[in-house]
Sequence to fold (389 residues):
Amino acid sequence: MTPSSLEIEHPAFTDYKWINPAEAANIRQQRLVLFGAGQGTEEFLNLSGKVLAGNEIAFITDNDASFWGKRLHGYEIRPPHHLKESTFDRIVVTSVSEREAISIQLRSMGYQEGRDFSLIGRYPKAYLKNFEILSQNLPASFSLKDKRVLHVGPGGFLGLEILLYCLGAERTCSIDKFGFGIHYPDITDCQEEYLEIRETIDTSDKFDEKRHPQALHRFETLFERNKNRTLLATDKIAYHYPMDVCDLDFPDQSFDVVFSSAVLEHINEPPAAVKEMARVLKKGGLMLNTVVTRDHRSFSKIKGYHPFSFRTYSADKWEEICSNKFYQNRLLPIEWKRLFETCGLTLLKYSVETVLEIDERMFETFHPDFRRFSREALGEIDCMILAIK
Fold:
């Protein structure tokens, strides 16, 4: 059943960031398995309760073995191999970080996309948040005019790249190791989402009366028409996938600005990543990174996790756990700070978002590897680092 435009425009659909509600609206009157025990599944369950009706949830499955046997909103989380011995109509993949990998996994098990499973997870459009991070932390005297910008890990949308180009950047470039369902350079299927960026230019105080006309002109030059298709101008907005931040395919000193947000915590070789970002940064260039250092499982409604849960494991055990999930390293903010300092960068700003008190009971649960840090350092969560080369 295809939802009508009225259904898709239902106010409830606007509240969902981690799933595509239009895709979800096609799934009705079925017995489902939800693949992914994260925010996407929570949103789907919420949407089903508010708008959709008639679906029955058999169980939730996830590649993260540390979730198996636990429950999310009352539904049991089982290993993927249980699919073969279970009865259901459709697998609904709500995961975003492992969307492509899960698709391959399910096809290898004999399931067919469209017939047996649907991919409804999508990466939230975080470009406005990232735009604000850059606006608040880059020096007021710093101008993007004629600058080259590298964005590491744009997720599923290149909105930040467009805004920075409209502010005067000569060229914006993004790289990602994972696809997250991004469209490039053909954006025909999501052109309306890109056209919404014009409203940001109209309303943001970053585009004042002096900058506004030029910004709108630059915005219009970013879109090309070719046989009823809409393409992003690749000479102005570049996107490279797959490319690993630990092995950047750019010459030394290629960029004036290097930026990432909520990316570095997923790198399994942090020293190599920081070294590479520093290598491609020009002398006098700025690097801005935000790092989410908490255990990402603590974002879930699954009981039993807190921001420091991953510190209870040995390094080997944590690597084993991460072999079946979207990787997360366990560096503390102070360790990130030291990494940037040892790569020839001068810190202009360093801040920690949250500080929690580590009491004796929690400290005793940590693996001995973490007891070499002070309790103050262990209590720090998430950080922002602005550095100059």
